[in-house]
Design brief:
Structural class: mainly alpha
Distance between the termini: 61 Å
Order of helices and strands: HHHHHHHHHHHH
CATH architecture: Orthogonal Bundle
Oligomer: single chain
Largest sheet: none
C-alpha cells in the first residue's frame, strides 16, 4: 500500500487552510463573546435579508393606494385592522410593506455611497501620505476646503442644482464624505512608509505601486474597514435627512426618510405614519454601530476606546 506524499505547495496550501479556519473560529468566538457585536450582527443580517427578499416578504404593493383605508392605526390600537399590522399612511398604503421595501433603498444608498467615498478617500490618502510635498499640501488643502463647508449644506446645494435621483444621491453622498477616509489613510501611510521593511523595499528598487499595494495598503485596511462600516450608519442618516427635506429619494421609490417626510404632517393625529420608519432607521443604525464597534476591537485594537 502506497502512502501519498504531499508536495511543498500542497503542504503550504493545507497550512494556510488550517490557519484560516483557526482565525475564523477565533473571530466567531470573539463575536459571540461580545453581546453588542452579536446583537449588531443579527440586526444587520436581518436587515440585509429583508432588503434582498423585500418583494417576497412585503404583504402588499408598497405603492398601491387605497383611500378608503387611509390613516388606519396599527392592528393593536382601537380602530386598527389585522390586515395592516402597522397601519396605513395618508394614501392608504401599508406601512409595514413600505418599511420592508424601503430597507432596500436605504441600505443600497448607504453601502454604495460608502464604497464611492471610500475608494476616493483611500486613493487620495495613499497618494498624499506616500508622496508628500506639493501633492500632499494640495490634497490636504482640498480636504480643508471640504471640511469648511457643512456636509448637509454642500449636499443640498448640489442636489438642488442637479436634481434628486437615486444615482445622483449616491454620487453626492460619496464625493462629499471622502475626506474622513483620506485623513485617516494619510496619517497611517505617513507612519508606515518610514518603517524598515518599506525602506528596504525602496532600497532594492521596488516600484512605488508595488510598495503601496503590497507593503502599505494591507497594514491600513483594518482601520479603513472599521471606519467604512461605521460610516454606513452615518450615510443612512444623511440619506434619510435629504429625503425628509425633499431632495433625496423621490416617489414612487420608497425610503425610510421619504416615509418620515410623508408622515410629518400627521404626527399630532396619526403618529404611526412617521414613528415606525423612524424606529426602523434607529434599529438599523444601532445594529451597524454595534457591529462596527466589535470590528474596531477585533481588527484595529489601537482604536479601541479607553
Amino acid at each position: 500500500m502506497q502512502t501519498k506524499v504531499e508536495t511543498p505547495n500542497e503542504v503550504s496550501i493545507n497550512t494556510q487552510h488550517v490557519k484560516s479556519k483557526r482565525k475564523s473560529a477565533r473571530w466567531l468566538k470573539m463575536l459571540f463573546k461580545s453581546k453588542t457585536g452579536t446583537v449588531g450582527l443579527v440586526i444587520v443580517l436581518l436587515m440585509i435579508l429583508m432588503a434582498l427578499f423585500a418583494d417576497v416578504i412585503a404583504p402588499y404593493d408598497p405603492a398601491k393606494t387605497n383611500v378608503t383605508d387611509r390613516l388606519l392605526p396599527p392592528a393593536w390600537s382601537e380602530g386598527g385592522s389585522s390586515d395592516y399590522l402597522l397601519g396605513t399612511d395618508n394614501l392608504g398604503r401599508d406601512i409595514l410593506s413600505r418599511i420592508i421595501v424601503g430597507s432596500r433603498v436605504s441600505l443600497l444608498v448607504g453601502i454604495s455611497a460608502v464604497i464611492v467615498a471610500g475608494a476616493i478617500g483611500l486613493a487620495m490618502g495613499l497618494i498624499s501620505g506616500y508622496y508628500g510635498g506639493f501633492i500632499d499640501r494640495l490634497i490636504m488643502r482640498l480636504v480643508d476646503a471640504f471640511l469648511a463647508i457643512p456636509n448637509i449644506l454642500f449636499m443640498l446645494i448640489i442636489l438642488a442644482v442637479v436634481g434628486p435621483s437615486l444615482s445622483t444621491l449616491i454620487i453626492v453622498l460619496g464625493v462629499t464624505t471622502w475626506v474622513v477616509y483620506a485623513r485617516m489613510v494619510r496619517g497611517e501611510t505617513l507612519s508606515i512608509k518610514e518603517r524598515d521593511y518599506v525602506q528596504s523595499a525602496k532600497a532594492i528598487g521596488a516600484k512605488d505601486f508595488r510598495i503601496i499595494t503590497v507593503y502599505i495598503l494591507p497594514n491600513i485596511i483594518s482601520s479603513f474597514i472599521v471606519i467604512a462600516t461605521l460610516n454606513v450608519a452615518t450615510t443612512i442618516i444623511l440619506e434619510s435627512s435629504l429625503s425628509f427635506l425633499g431632495l433625496g429619494i423621490q416617489s414612487p421609490d420608497v425610503s425610510w426618510g421619504l416615509m418620515l417626510s410623508d408622515g410629518r404632517e400627521y404626527l399630532a393625529t396619526s403618529w404611526w405614519v412617521a414613528t415606525f420608519p423612524g424606529i426602523a432607521i434607529t434599529i438599523t443604525v444601532l445594529g451597524i454601530i454595534f457591529l462596527g464597534d466589535w470590528l474596531r476591537d477585533v481588527l484595529d485594537p489601537k482604536m479601541k476606546a479607553n
